[in-house]
Structures are given as structure tokens and as C-alpha cells.
Amino acid sequence: MASTSSPDTSLMANAIRALAMDAVQQANSGHPGAPMGMADIAVALWGRHLKH
Predict the structure, then answer these.
(1) Mean pLDDT, 10 residues at a time, over the chain (52 residues)?
(2) How far is CA 51 from CA 5, 25, 45, 47, 48, in A?
(3) What's the pLDDT score for residue 1?
(4) What confidence score (pLDDT) does residue 2 get?
(5) Alpha carbons 15 and 24: distance in angstroms, whole number
(6) Quick one: CA torsion of 9, 28, 31, 4, rounded to 10 degrees?
(7) What is the DSSP string of 1-35?
(8) Cα dist from 8 to 18, 27, 29, 34, whole Å
(9) What pTM did the predictor assign?
(10) Predicted local distance difference test score (pLDDT) of residue 16
């Protein structure tokens, strides 16, 4: 993540990575590479840019 990374954003991104690994293992199919690589982007989008 960019230099604006905080411990909270790192924890959120790591949680996404762990969930991606668990989902792939539970499904016995797939590859967690994309979700693991895009976790920081997901945190930035949902935390800073999307209105929810």
C-alpha cells in the first residue's frame, strides 16, 4: 500500500488475504493470487472512495 498505510489498513488487507485463502481451500478449487494481490486496493476502495 502507499505511504499512507496505517496498522489498521494493513490488518484489514491481511484479513482479506486470509479469507481468500480460506475460501479457496473450502471450495477445493480456484487460485487465491488475485484476491491476495488486490487486498490493499480493496481496502483503499471500500475505506476511502466508495459510499456505503
Answers:
(1) 72 96 93 92 92 72
(2) 20, 31, 10, 9, 8
(3) 43
(4) 47
(5) 14
(6) 0
(7) --TT--HHHHHHHHHHHHHHHHHHHHHT----HHH
(8) 15, 29, 30, 21
(9) 0.78
(10) 95
